[in-house]
Amino acid sequence: xxxxxxxxxxxxxxxxxxxxxxxxxxxxxxxxxxxxxxxxxxxxxxxxxxxxxxxxxxxxxxxxxxxxxxxxxxxxxxxxxxxxxxxxxxxxxxxxxxxxxxxxxxxxxxxxxxxxxxxxxxxxxxxxxxxxxxxxxxxxxxxxxxxxxxxxxxxxxxxxxxxxxxxxxxxxxxxxxxxxxxxxxxxxxxxxxxxxxxxxxxxxxxxxxxxxxxxxxxxxxxxxxxxxxxxxxxxxxxxxxxxxxxxxxxxxxxxxxxxxxxxxxxxxxxxxxxxxxxxxxxxxxxxxxxxxxxxxxxxxxxxxxxxxxxxxxxxxxxxxxxxxxxxxxxxxxxxxxxxxxxxxxxxxxxxxxxxxxxxxxxxxxxxxxxxxxxxxxxxxxxxxxxxxxxxxxxx
Length: 395
Prior knowledge:
About 45% of the residues lie in helices and about 15% in strands. The chain is built from 15 helices and 14 strands. The chain has helices spanning about 20-30, 70-90, 100-110, 140-150, 165-175, 195-205, 230-235, 250-265, 280-285, 300-305, 310-315, 325-335, 345-360, 360-375, 380-395; strands spanning about 5-10, 35-40, 45-55, 55-60, 95, 120-125, 155-160, 180, 215-220, 240-245, 270-275, 290-295, 320-325, 340. An 8-stranded mixed β-sheet has the order 3-4-2-1-5-6-7-8, sandwiched between helices. A 6-stranded parallel β-sheet has the order 11-10-9-12-13-14, with helices on both faces. It is globular, with a radius of gyration of 22 Å.
């Protein structure tokens, strides 16, 4: 790298909350000597308000420049161009788009910039963008596909979260170079068994159940398409298990879940717990006997999904019961760390829970296999790949 410090700008059109993947990416840039800043959504009227988030400078801008009375679609369309102009004030050497929207903003900011001063673009696709939303019409999907193809060919490199997405994106866009695969793995967590046991005791005490009760846990954002209702139903059908729902969501949806719990008569076997900092998550995920990842197959993106919670359960050495999607099922069967199920079949979910609960030999094998997976599926390995790419871009 040159003596002059390079500047990397991350653009996120959302609020940049729970951005663990972005922070790991940016830590690589910092490790290479770059200055790192973030541009993210703020409150109405924000025009560069500065926050400090986990040691990163985050500059907030409004996505409603015309005010709340103007339709959101119009505001967002205009804000993309306004943001593109604002990016120039930061004079970045490299721009990483958090998703396609962030990449579009970054690309717009390079218009009419002399070639020698034009920032390099990086596309960090957190999801399978083309298949992300079934509510998009045919025209919208076509435009998004064409835009992604146009921009990805103008990037220094692009990042996908797993091999299946990388292969599909390369096929669809006929790319000569396959996108770099950097999975959303956490660091190799150091587990404190005493703290995990204490957390389990606290959870069981709160519910008033024995500490030997088989605990199921969902952790992550609370939203309908995560199918948390399936966990509640499983607890209702099996008096030998209890459930923990850990995460934040809208008050309306949280009330829906709590009402469902009351309707099923399982208030004494379900705990709702707010989200916890990432460095404390292992205590809770590790306190569970099984992690539940029962996402609905609501779009093509869901079939390719490999969510953070999968890796977080692995790092916590917690066997997994998941939706039988292409990617999740493949990982679970490859490593032998749980059971993939058809989430539309309640009996299949129940059988999976009972097998983990009662088949001691199978459960023990899952725990042994998790110890192997924990060493392989961690950021220590992913970091090397990303470091090599950024070293070339920042040189």
